[in-house]
Amino acid sequence: MRVLVVEDERRLADAIARGLRREGMAVDISADGADAIEKTNLVRYDVVVLDRDLPEVHGDKVCAAVREHKPETGIIMLTAASEVEELVAGLALGADDYMAKPFRFEELVARIRALGRRALPARPPILRHGELELDPARRSLTRAGQPVELARKELAVLEALMSADGATVSAEELLERVWDEHTDPFTNVVRMTIMTLRRKLGEPPVVETVIGVGYRMA
After folding, report:
1. Are the C-beta atoms of residues 39 and 6 closer than 8 Å to each other?
2. Is 171 buried (19+), middle (13-18) or exposed (0-12) by CB count in 10 A?
3. Cβ proximity of 100 and 111 under 8 Å
4. Given CB 3.0 to 4.6 Å as the disulfide criterion, which of 90, 102, 136, 202 pairs with 77?
5. Class in CATH terms, 127-217
6. What CATH architecture does domain 2-117 belong to?
7. In percent, how much of the chain has pLDDT > 90?
8. Phi, psi for 97 (deg, rounded to 5)
């Protein structure tokens, strides 16, 4: 999953990003609303975690802009207020979910994953393809009932391929979905990760290359 954290409190933003990366997500950070709007126009994020009380460009305007231009993107709005009126106002702007600070990190992760599953087409909580069974929330994979240990990026690439339901996924799309904005766009990290993934998944091969196009589940 690709997530944008929009939070002007840098220590909090960094803490959220570190935690989400440990959960296998690709995470970018914006410290202000204008930057957040620009990034969401350029990148297809699964979920935006949005602080409502941003300086200069308010979180409400960011929420409205994301909902207008990227209606498929999930939005979780964060605020220091917990009154019902604040919750209603946030949802009325187009937010999908609403959390009051302070919040439990485990709950934030669960809500992000729930929004990701609601994307179109909707994804089941457990992904299956042939002998493979992948549980993204628990970051666990089995093949023919036997556990397979994968690194975070390998697991994220496999999740993207399995979620594509047989369609071919380009290297560029995998780079956008699995890695963050600091990754060199000319890197061969996707090809190397696919090679390692194939080796760990064993025989017969389940990930095939579509020459000149990308990769798909065999």
Report:
1. no
2. middle
3. no
4. 90
5. mainly alpha
6. 3-Layer(aba) Sandwich (3.40)
7. 64
8. -150, 165
